[in-house]
Amino acid sequence: MTLSAASHWRQAFHLCPPRGLMNDPNGLVWFQGAYHVFYQWHPDACQHGLKQWGHYRSTDLVHWTSLPVALAPEHDYESHGCYSGSALVDQGGLVLLYTGNVRKGELRESYQCLARSSDALTFDKLGPVIPAPPPGFTQHFRDPKIWKDGDTYWLVIGAQTEAGQGTVLLYRGRSPESWQWTGELLPERCHGYMCECPDLFRLDDTDILLFCPQGLPAQGQRFNNRHAAGYVAGRLNAEQGAMQHGEIIELDRGFDFYAPQTLQDPQGRRLMLGWMGLPDEDQTPTVADGWTHCLTLPRALHWEGGLLRQTPPVEMQQLRGPHTRLPARFFNGTLELSQIGGDCFELVCEVQPGLSRCWGLDVRVDADHFTRLLWQADGNSLSLDRQASGEGDGGVRHTRLAAGASVRLHVFVDRSSIEVFVNRGEQVFSARIYPPADAQAIRLFAEGEVQLTRLDFWPLHAPSVCREGVE
Ligand code: FRU
User: Fold this and answer.
1) Where are the beta strands (DSSP E) in 239-370?
2) Mean pLDDT across the stretch 331-339?
3) How many A from CA of 111 to the centre of ligand 1?
4) Which residues pair with 108 in a beta bridge?
5) Strands 441-459 and 324-326
6) Which end of the chain is more exposed for a tag (fewer CB within 10 A), N or C?
7) Closest C-alpha among 294, 253, 239, 299 to residue 272
């Protein structure tokens, strides 16, 4: 058994690297009857380093096959890594656009490179198609996301102005080989010092631009992580290379969410996966086991009432084991839920707080540990508290909820993570947690009487990941 497989924090149903470090999802695409998820992979160590594109494939978003590395540095234009990028199905084949990262001492060069494939197994590298950023922007220029509209190709790319401001640039192409800079989509100066991993798509007549502003200062409960992932919504004027948009909204209120990317699948769903990690946070407890980081669950995106909602796709239900439904009831004080528990499960819990001061749900509980979701009447806020979760970083993250008579938490716990979809995905918390393996109890508690109107629980099975040609 490899070190990685022996780790008791090894995720059961999230995509992890076979070994080494995983970061951004790349090249998300539906191609030849399957979902493809490529990812930034440094197989040789649990630090950032010479990045390759690892590759997973699935027909159902749940059972994944690990395929051989798709892109690895070979040429001068990518000598220090095949960095993040995207995929497009074009004329029956697959187009990959990615950033060739080159370091020359302290200096950096970034080349936007093209590769093509007819089978998603072998890739022909065609070299740089955008050899440098436009005038006025630095070599922090990476992560092209490509799409096609009619006969025209488009891409957005993360950039930095020479004044040191993060922004997103738009390019237009006659083909994936030939690009022309069209404009800057985030011209105001409030997006940190660099924007990484942009994505742009339309949902219900609204254009949504995802991006990761680095180094945004915290604003109260917002932007509490060192690097953020957010979106703006509005209207893209592609011809003029400009976007009218509202303010940036964080995509996730937890601790570990970055570099999300989306694809549209044949059912028309806009699905998003993110990296359940952050740049500059590599000392995770699984490093000792030879691997670090993982991706989030896939999430379906919906545009409703001026808000991007995220929901787990229905395919996740394939993982469900026997269902337990607890009776609805009023309670006050602590309610140990001895009928349910585990380290891999899905739980839906709905509570009407009434006049209570607070209520909460603890998971991964033993005598000394718990991971807490706490609702407080004061401010109608919800927090995720991992101070007593176990090893790794602690901390608390808060968010204010929209007014409503009840609070619904849809929780996915894997061996070293928690993802919470709040009120049908209006907000999501994602975090890595590292509890002892046998911290498996679940409890509810309240100060003041609350009504538990629903509690459904399913243990989740670990789907096996098959490997084809991955050592
Ligand atoms: C985001 C990022 C990207 C870059 C990649 C390198 O996490 O820094 O901007 O392409 O990771 O692995």
Assistant:
1) 242-245, 249-250, 258-264, 270-275, 291-292, 299-304, 307-311, 324-326, 329-336, 345-352, 358-365
2) 97
3) 14
4) 103
5) antiparallel
6) N
7) 299
Q: pLDDT tens-digit profile of 291-322? A: 999 999 999 999 999 999 999 999 999 999 99
Q: Where are the beta strands (DSSP E) in 161-237?
A: 166-175, 178-184, 194-203, 206-214, 230-237
Is residue 96 in contact with ligand 1, taking CB distance under 6 Å?
no
Q: Which tokens hold the place of 426?
A: 């209006």
Rounded CA separation 309/296 (Å): 16
Q: What is the DSSP letter of 4?
A: H
From 416, 345, 342, 429, select the one nearest 384 (Cα to Cα): 429
**Count of Cβ atoms closer than 10 Å to residue 362 Cβ:** 21
Cβ-count burial of 244 within 10 angstroms (0-12 exposed, 13-18 middle, 19+ buried)? Answer: exposed
Residues 108, 98: Cα–Cα separation, whole Å: 16
Q: Is 451 in the pocket of ligand 1 (CB under 6 A)?
A: no
Residue type, position 358, single letter? C
With tokens 């022909």, the residue in question is 124
Q: Report the residue among 22, 24, 26, 46 best suited for mutation to probe ligand 1: largest number of ligand atoms under 8 A from its CB.
A: 24
Contacts of 37-41 spanning 24+ positions with Cβ under 8 A:
37/64, 37/273, 37/295, 38/70, 38/71, 38/87, 38/96, 39/15, 39/295, 40/83, 40/84, 40/275, 41/17, 41/69
Please give the number of the atom of ligand 1 that sits closest to the Cα of 275.
7
Report the distance separating Cα 278 and Cα 23, nearest Å: 8
The letter for the amino acid at 325 is: R
Which segments of 43-193 are extended strands (E)?
52-58, 65-71, 82-90, 93-104, 107-117, 124-130, 142-149, 152-160, 166-175, 178-184
For 212-223, the pLDDT digits (tens) are: 999 999 999 999
**pTM for the predicted model, two decimal places:** 0.96
Tell me how far apart the alpha carbons of residues 454 and 471 are, in angstroms, rounded to a whole number. 45
| CA 425 – CA 28 distance, rounded (Å) | 22
Closest to 417 in 3D by CA, of 275, 290, 308, 317: 275
Distance CA(93)–CA(122), nearest Å, equals: 11
Q: How far is the CA of 95 from the centre of ligand 1 (A)?
A: 20
Which atom from ligand 1 is nearest to the alpha carbon of 24?
A: 7
**Could you tell me the distance, in angstroms and rounded to a whole number, from the CA of residue 23 to the centre of ligand 1?**
7
Which one from 24, 207, 289, 385 is the annotated catalytic residue?
A: 24
Mean pLDDT of 39-58: 97
User: In terms of DSSP bridges, do strands 242-245 and 152-160 run parallel, antiparallel, or are they unpaired?
Assistant: unpaired
* Catalytic residue check, 265: no
